[in-house]
Amino acid sequence: MDQLDQPYCYHRFVVMPLDKNQPWRVWAFVIGLNVAGLIGAAVLKANGISLFSLRGG
After folding, report:
1. CB contact set of 17 (below 8 Å; sequence gap of 6+)
2. For residue range 5-39, what is the model confidence (pLDDT) as tens digits?
3. Domain boundaries along the sequence of the chain
4. Whole-number pLDDT of residue 3
5. CB–CB of 19/32 below 8 Å?
6. Distance separating alpha carbons of residues 34 and 26, to the nearest angstrom
7. CB–CB of 14/8 below 8 Å?
8. Helix (H) or strand (E) holding 8
9. What is the pLDDT of residue 31?
């Protein structure tokens, strides 16, 4: 097995090497979803809505 195929451990996180055939659209979707979540949280905070108040229980 080549050394580049080994996972790289950084503290508690394991970073796997990227596959050349991995679709870029999946990464674009994941990054876009994270950006939308951050923008949504900023809008809620700007309107004075606490995200912790939405917790059930």
Report:
1. 4, 5, 6, 7, 8
2. 555 555 666 666 777 777 888 889 999 999 999 99
3. 20-57
4. 54
5. no
6. 13
7. yes
8. strand 8-10
9. 95
Q: Please, are residues 7 and 14 in contact by the beta-carbon 8 Å criterion?
A: yes
For the chain, the straight-line distance linking the first and the last C-alpha, in angstroms and rounded, comes to 50
CA separation (Å) from 25 to 8, 12, 22, 28, 44? 24, 28, 9, 5, 28
DSSP string, 28-43: HHHHHHHHHHHHHHHH
CA distance linking residue 22 with residue 34, whole number of Å: 19
Q: Of 3, 37, 28, 4, which is closest to residue 18 (Cα–Cα)?
A: 4
Q: Which two tokens stand for residue 38?
A: 């951050």
